[in-house]
Amino acid sequence: MKKKKDWKARELYSKLLTPNIFLIRLDGRNFSKVLDDFEKPYDLRFAKIMVDSCKEVMREFNAAFAYTFSDEANFLMKDVFGCRLEKINSIVASEFASRVSLKLGFPVSFDSRIVFANLDEVWEYLSWRQNEAWRNHLNSYAFYTLLKEIKDRRKVQKLLEGKKSSELHDILYTRGTNPAKTPAWQRRGILLYWKELEFEKEFRGKIVRYRRRRIFESWDPPLFDTDEGKIFINNIINSWIKN
Prior knowledge:
With about 240 residues, this protein is of the alpha+beta class. It has helices at about 30-35, 45-60, 85-105, 120-150, 155-160, 165-175, 185-190, 225-240, and strands at about 20-30, 65-70, 70-80, 110-115, 190-205, 205-220. A six-stranded antiparallel sheet has the order 4-1-3-2-5-6, with helices on both faces. Strand 2 (about 65-70) and strand 3 (about 70-80) form a beta hairpin. Helix 2 packs antiparallel against helix 3 (about 85-105), helix 4 crosses helix 5 (about 155-160) and helix 4 (about 120-150) packs across helix 6 (about 165-175). The longest helix has 29 residues, at about 120-150. It is globular and about 65 Å long. The termini are far apart. About 25% of the residues are buried. The model has no long low-confidence stretch (mean pLDDT about 95).
């Protein structure tokens, strides 16, 4: 009798584990086409959809925070699905995509990657992503500003190819847009984090105090590579670890 193949053993990455605490980054697929009917270069409606979806995922997986800009979302998580990388990558991405899809009213997808960082390095990772948010901000404004003049997407893309941030800044400034004066959430991204609040209520003639965690939204987060930013992120992480 022919020996049965062990298909379970052929699952290539089923035994790969993440560290106990890890970062996960989700990126939207083909969102330049997906959001064709939305305001350019940024649409507040879509930003709110990303924020609300981030909140839901934070609650579902008890993430320490979410940092989002454009069609990207980053989370710090711990003890999820026994740290099984394959399961984390697939389920978190599908959870997030389904929530965004329901809010948009049409299907979208996100890819997912796990990033390892020690807790004292998380601010560096966020600083890297925040720099990308700024670069994305300059690119987006420059692209749609020039598109109004040139009316040809390929020509604009070719014109902007390889341009430095300073050059993109000049393109905008000479056309009446000061990138530093645009809304902070477009330049710096949006940070969501847990905060513990104290409440009190009267119960049987006595004042009872209790604490509850709430998710707060910062649409004007600090620069993560500053002392203020480092302290802010470390405080969020320390509070999360205790819970």
